[in-house]
Amino acid sequence: MAGQFVFGYGSLVNRRSHGAPRSHPARLSGWRREWCQTNIRPVPFLSARPAPGHRITGLIAEVDGGDWTALDAREYAYDRHDADPHGHGLDPAPRVQVYAVAAKHRAPDARGPILMSYLDVVVQGYLTEFGKDGVAEFFATTDGWDRPVLNDRPDPRYSRHQQLSPAEQALVDGHLAALAVAVEELE
Q1: Distance CA 91, CA 74 (A)
Q2: Which one, 21, 53, 56, 85, has the greatest CB density within 10 A?
Q3: What's the gap between Cα 34 and its chain centre?
Q4: Domain ranges of the chain
Q5: What is the model's pTM?
Q6: What single-letter DSSP state applies at residue 139?
Q7: Whole-angstrom Cα distance, residue 157 to residue 117?
Q8: By the 8 A CB rule, do 19 and 11 touch?
Q9: Phi and psi (nearest 5°) for 128?
């Protein structure tokens, strides 16, 4: 199979958030997902970090024409790393890269809230691709739930926000409650 792919483990799992010509479910061993605060934005976003013995589920999405320009612009705070995901069923396996927040952009002491509109996009993607068990796995394989979530659903701040059904919203809210994540309301 020709082409270059990116392994998405957050909003890229939601096919509505991108225009990748081909996407396939996959798993990436040796990495873990985390909420990462940066010096670029006041809110955290998802990143991946090397973590032996761990595995995350996501999608590999083809980079249209192998032109990384638009995707690099979207993921400007990240560095690209070679990745070897499995379970995608493509033979031969394509070249795949994964984005991880660049060390120079990390702000580990900052504690901004997670945007609910961003989390909603991610969970909607996992629900569509992997069902409720996939959503539960997303929450279980993501670190950083010790920070609050800002309920910006009434006025979404995430640029690629999606409309969620009441059942999808309840699913997100239920997982946050089970993790005892504080939810802050917009002022």
Answers
A1: 28
A2: 85
A3: 9
A4: 4-185
A5: 0.93
A6: H
A7: 7
A8: no
A9: -65, -45
How many residues are present in the chain?
Answer: 187
Confirm if 162 and 52 have CB atoms less than 8 A apart. Answer: no
> Which phi-psi region, left, alpha or beta, contains residue 57 (left: φ > 0; alpha: ψ -120 to 50)?
beta
| DSSP states along 118-134 | HHHHHHHHHHHHHHHHH
* Residue 109 to residue 36: CA distance in whole angstroms: 10
Q: What is the pLDDT along the chain (187 residues), one digit of tens a residue?
A: 457 899 999 999 998 887 777 889 999 999 999 999 999 889 999 999 999 999 999 999 998 877 889 888 888 889 999 999 998 988 888 889 999 998 899 998 888 999 999 999 999 999 999 999 999 999 999 999 999 999 999 999 998 899 999 999 999 999 999 999 999 998 8
Tell me the pairing of strands 23-36 and 142-143.
parallel
Rg (CA), the chain: 16
Beta bridge partners of 142: 33
Torsion angles phi and psi, residue 36, rounded to 5: -125, 125
